[in-house]
Amino acid sequence: MYLETERLALRDFTMGDLWDLHEIFSDPEAMKNTEPPYSLERTTSFLKEFCVNPESKNAFAVVLKEAGKVIGYVLFMHIDEPEIFETGWIFNKDYWRQGYAYEICSELIRHGFEDIGLHKICAEAIDEKKSVSLMKKLGMQSEGIQRKHSRNGEGDWCDLYRYAILAEDYNRVQ
Fold first, then answer.
1. CA dihedral of 100, 126, 90, 76, whole degrees rounded to 10
2. pTM (2 decimals)?
3. Mapped to the 3 state alphabet, what secondary structure does the chain carry?
4. pLDDT at 57 over 80
5. Which of 7, 35, 37, 47 is the 20 to 30 Å CA partner of 25?
6. How far is CA 130 from CA 41, 137, 155, in A?
7. What's the half-sphere exposure (Cβ side, CA atoms, 13 Å) at 109?
8. What are phi and psi of 130, to 5 degrees?
C-alpha cells in the first residue's frame, strides 16, 4: 500500500526502517498505553514477522516526506467480515501534537471507504485523552467501554475504549 498526504507518506515497512521503528517502540512514553518498551531484538522480530512478512503485512510506516524518516506505525487490518478493518497507531513522541496522526489516519479512512469499499473501520485504545480525542476527530463514534480490560505498558489494568466509523457515516459528512 502507498498513500500520500501533503506532509506524509504511508507505505509498506522494510527492514531498513528498523532504527526509526525502534526509536518509537523502545520509548516508554510512546509505549505507555500499549505494552512495555521493546528491546532491539523484539523490535527486529516484530518488524520482520508482522510488518514486513507478506503473509501478515498489516502494519504500515508513516514517513515524514521532507526528511524521509519513519515517524509512526499504523495498523490497518481485516477483522471479522471482509469489509471490516481495524486501525491503530503509535507515533514517535517527538512528532506528537503536530497533526500527523490525524492527517494520515484521515487519508487511511478515505482510502478504506472510497478505494476499498469497506463497511466499517474500528479502533480501540486505553488512552482516553489523546487517542479517544483523535478517534472522535476522525468521525468515529463510541461503541462502548470495556472496564479494566487491558493492561498498559506498566502492567496496570485500564479501561478499553472502542470506537468505529461506518461507511454511511463517512459518506454523510463528505
1. -90
2. 0.93
3. CEEECCCEEEEECCHHHHHHHHHHHCCHHHHCCCCCCCCHHHHHHHHHHHHHCCCCCCEEEEEECCCCEEEEEEEEEECCCCCEEEEEEEECHHHCCCCHHHHHHHHHHHHHHHHHCCCEEEEEECCCCHHHHHHHHCCCEEEEEEEEEEECCCCCEEEEEEEEEEHHHHHHHC
4. no
5. 7
6. 29, 11, 20
7. 28
8. -70, -50
Q: How far apart (Å, rounded) are the C-alpha atoms in residues 104 and 65?
A: 12
- State whether the Cα torsion 84-85-86-87 is positive or negative: negative
Grid-cell match 510506516, residue found = 61
Distance (Å, rounded) from C-alpha 127 to C-alpha 163?
Answer: 12
Which of 61, 13, 19 is CA-nearest to residue 40?
19
Q: Using one digit for the tens of pLDDT, what is the confidence trace for 6-35?
A: 999 999 999 999 999 999 999 999 998 988
Intra-chain end-to-end CA distance of the chain, in Å: 23
Answer whether residue 1 shows pLDDT above 90.
no
Paired sense of beta strands 84-91 and 120-125, if any: parallel
What tens digit of pLDDT does each residue of 104-142 get? 999 999 999 999 999 999 999 998 888 999 999 999 999
